[in-house]
Amino acid sequence: MSYIVVDKTVFDEAIEWVNENFTKIPKDDLLRLYAFYKIANGMRHEQNNKQPIVSAFKANAIMQVSHLSIDMAQARYSALVEKLKQMD
Cα separation of 34 and 50, whole Å? Predict the structure, then answer.
């Protein structure tokens, strides 16, 4: 089994870029980023009863990537951000 280690600064820079550009990012990619971020930080989805549909989409996104390790989630987050930067 190979391990993927992402330099924390690469992940942090990716988070910064998303925070600065989130209005330009397609909604489906935002959901993927949300899910990767939650897994990468060892967090779980917290249900929002005021927005049940949004909450369901977020929960589904997390379930799809819940098998990933923290390192892999960070790597996938960073890779998706790099792809989005190229499209920008």
Answer: 19
